[in-house]
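Budget justification note: compute hours in this period were largely spent on complex prediction jobs such as the one shown. Inputs:
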Amino acid sequence: MTQSPIVQSDTWIGTADLSDVSEEDIEMDSGVQAVWEGARLAGQAYTVRIPPGDHRGVFRAIATAGPGSILVVDAGGGADRCVFGGVTAVAAKERGIAGVVIDGLIRDRDAIRELRFPVFARGWTPRAPRPRTDGRLRETVLVGQLQVNHGDYIVGDGDGVVRIRQEVAGTALELALALVHQEHDIVARLKLGQQLSDFAEQLKRLNKGQLQ
Amino acid sequence: MTQSPIVQSDTWIGTADLSDVSEEDIEMDSGVQAVWEGARLAGQAYTVRIPPGDHRGVFRAIATAGPGSILVVDAGGGADRCVFGGVTAVAAKERGIAGVVIDGLIRDRDAIRELRFPVFARGWTPRAPRPRTDGRLRETVLVGQLQVNHGDYIVGDGDGVVRIRQEVAGTALELALALVHQEHDIVARLKLGQQLSDFAEQLKRLNKGQLQ
Amino acid sequence: MTQSPIVQSDTWIGTADLSDVSEEDIEMDSGVQAVWEGARLAGQAYTVRIPPGDHRGVFRAIATAGPGSILVVDAGGGADRCVFGGVTAVAAKERGIAGVVIDGLIRDRDAIRELRFPVFARGWTPRAPRPRTDGRLRETVLVGQLQVNHGDYIVGDGDGVVRIRQEVAGTALELALALVHQEHDIVARLKLGQQLSDFAEQLKRLNKGQLQ
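Corresponding output:
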């Protein structure tokens, strides 16, 4: 897996910025959220598809995904069993995996927070997984209504998670970087006493949903 | 806008205390919550009414609301786009606005938390706003089922948000202050080993929902 | 009330570990959660049954429950009034009560967090309780669909709350302790560079939901 152009950037590019510069819908539904405050992640998706509560595919993915990958686990939304927990988080972190996004449930939330390992999920439960299958790796998966291809770029922060298709990642990065610099500039000027109205034209462009 | 009697108090008066001393229902529904832990606000409402996802009215309100105001934004509950974010939060804070309550969605939650600017909303999304109208300012708005008039007093904390009508704000402050002092007194005595039962009569009065 | 075997342990045994070693369903539904991040509790249940919003039974329980007890309050799920708040939390803590689990609502969330008193509930509201009855103490109650007997063991952490029946508490503790030690061992070895696959057989046993 090549280095993510989004991850290579020295400037943090958030989900809101990527949403702004994207012409298509890239946002996962808001049910998938950081399981601890401040968690954020960016990298290329390593996809996993498993039945709800069946975590064996996650173990297989941890053994095979490259450093910097984001595991994107389609567990069908969750039912009532977890598919990821504290021990698995240590294993993933030690392998260099950069974060995990799960359409399903996790557990050991306190331990995962202490580890500072970024995990996004639909919720948590103490209830153990029940392995039945090997799962499927590196196939296209669904997180809510959003399709994620193996190798797509994934970014998550306090606002949720977005997916950038590989084909547009370079352009999205470039546009988002320009946007972030403009926002930093506006914020600096606001702190010097300028008003939002001084940026009316600039903000109108920013608010069009993409730079032009 | 005159100084809020509630804000002038040296003692913090919480939403629970104001709920206790109010004869009418003053609580916003529990869907509207602090977007970061510990956020709280108090001040007079500067009302804004906008279609979901249409944030231009918020920009206009920031330009015109006086210092100490609380923007109360009726965005119809939210749909799927935000109407407030990190740049707007900096602008509002620089103008001296004391906080924002939104029946709708925000974004840039991590940045707003770092800024320590108090924002209450129904949730968050990375998805950009779409300005279409100028919105309406200083009119009566609805947050959930609760009516908020321009100039009403607004208090928000970890329990949610309440609205105190201007006509009763002085009385509510006086009653709530007396209540807070009684509670402080009871807490101090509990820590010295007294029992809840020692305060049976006093607590019965407190629990009637208003001081008498 | 005797000392809890679970509480006596020097090692923290979490809800996930207890879930793993239990043959029956022991998990409260995920609507009942810690009201501040990091809250956790363990001890024997002192049960309270009250109508929604009617907190007088909680006062009575605080006066009579022994040190180390966990109040388990069946308030019918909550409706729109609280049954527990900041003053009651101070009283409970001073009496040596180890925590509170409520199928209902609380208030004074900020104060309870500052007090570091562990409370689990369905949510919060500023709205005052309305005492009407004395409630019923030390009877079997329901939290969601889970039955809790007076004297059962209760454990709560970031993943939710579980109940261990008195009859199986000794065995559950023993099994869970062995499980925790195995997990600690696996985590230590993962950090030394071993892979999850090195523990395949061991993890298979752990994942069966109980030690054998």
